[in-house]
Structures are given as structure tokens and as C-alpha cells.
Amino acid sequence: MTDVEAQVAQFGENFQRVRTEIAKVIVGHADVVEGLLICLLCGGHALLEGVPGLGKTLLVKSLGAALHLDFSRIQFTPDLMPADITGTRVVSQDEDGHRYFEFQQGPIFSNIVLADEINRATPKTQSALLEAMQEQTVTVAGVEYKLHLPFLVLATQNPLEMDGTYPLPEAQLDRFFLKLQVTYPSFEDLSEIVDRTTQRQERLLEPILQEAKILEAQQFVRDVPIASHVKNYAIRMVMATHPQTQTASEQVKRYVRYGSSPRGVQSLVLAGKVRALFQERFHVSIEDLRAVALPCLRHRLILNFEGEAEGVDSADLIRDILEHLPEQAPR
User: Which helix (H) or strand (E) holds 78?
Assistant: First the structure.
């Protein structure tokens, strides 16, 4: 076995152990767990959307418990202020009685930050996350503070209740690496959930990976090679989301106002690299890109008035692109 093959095998084993640990608490949702691990390994952030009671918050807390990382939770409410997230300067006093300003860190200074029901806070408060999510820094009173690495924001939102909520602006949506849909469990999963939650038993998770190992894995992901024709497929897939391009499908031209930003291509390639490693391969295939296309792009398509009026789902548009986009560029 070569060194690379050994590294790929060790990579898969480590994160299979994390999956197994999370499964002690979480029933099902294997695709969502994989999406969270992809975000962790790519240095990105995830938006989890689903109706109440599906275990979104518990899922994020379980990920934090299965890793040797700091975890914090922010419950977003309409009266939450930006300083409640980033922290603020407070007046302190030294032994001689001299007063001075001291920065008191907010809950954003953690490795895994759960932004629970993020769309319940005002846009002013939501914007407090923008700098942190993009640059891993927080600026308060003109002073820049570095965040702890790895840094991962996992936000949840409920798609049903619209009263008292503030839709996330497109600039913030684009900063989420993946948008993951948490769906209703199957009959078998519901049966297991009932057994686990209505009996006297306590399931404690054992932390698996240290911070240094996770940062090392993030660098290893970026070493995975991608062939030029596979990279070009990712680019053409994103170009096909733009209604003004020749490769756009009729549905995209009819219903989409703006397509994916360049972050969409970056997400496709990085997520494809992680999926390849999960499949014990050290190269990205077109199938890897197709497998991660929905969570990478579904939140990056902005519908026009007709699309919104007809209730078009951006996921259906992406499926239409995948169906009609040839693997090789036409000559």
C-alpha cells in the first residue's frame, strides 16, 4: 500500500468513527451527517432547513460532542443584538483602581457555532456573522480578532413559520457552503426514535478527533487532484445556472433571475474532493460532482418573479441541469 493509499484509508476510518459515534444519538439522516462532515473538512458552513422536531439542533450538538472541539449555541430571537454574538468591550479595573476597556468575547469565539433559528433575528444581527463566516475574524471598535480554527457555523431555520422571521439576504446565503434539507424520518427510523427516547437509557458520545487532526484533514482534502475535464464539468454546471448563457436549460431561462456565484464552483470541487475520499478514492469523478450538486447550488439560484409566483423549487432546476448537461463539452 502506498503512502497516499494509507492516508486515504486512515481518513475514511477516522470519519467513519465520527459517523458511528453520532449514530448513537441520531437515527437516520446519513446524508445530512455526511454534509456536515463535508463542511467541516472544507472549512465551510451549513444551513439546515426542516420543520420543527426533526432533530436539527440535536444533530449539530451531537457533531460537537463527537469531536474534541469547543461548541457554543446562539438562540436567534428578534431582540438579539450583534454584540450578543461577537462580544463587546466592557469597563474593567486593575489593582491600582485604574479603569480600562477590555474585550469580552461572544459565543462566536468557538469552533462549532450553532445559530439556532437564524431567520428569527433582524438583518442587522444576521449581518454580524458575515465577516466571521468569510474571513474567520471579528472586528470590534476597529480591532480585529482572530477566531478559533477550525471554525464552523451551522445554522437552522424553519421553512413553515414566516411570521416574525426575516429571510436571509442573498449575500449571507451564498456564504453557506451547503444547504441541507432535513426530511421526515421513515417508519423504521421513527420506531427506533421512539425506542430510544421513551426508555431509561443515556447515550454519551466519546470525542473522536482532536483539533490538530481535523486541521490536518482539511489540508489533505485540498491535495486531492481533479482532472481538467472534471473541473470543466463543474464550471459548465454552474454556468448552466445563468439564464443568459447558451448552456442554460429552458426552465432556467424561464424561472431564474441570477445563477450561482463563483462560490458555487468552489463548493462543488471541494465537496467533490471530500466525497471522493469518503469513497476511498484519491481523485474526483463527475459522479462526485453530481452527488453534491443539490446541497452546493440549491441556495445559490435566485428565482425571478414568475418562478416565485409558480412556487418553483430550485432543486428541481438543478436536477433539470444535471439531466441535460453532457459530461463532455460540445466541440
Answer: none
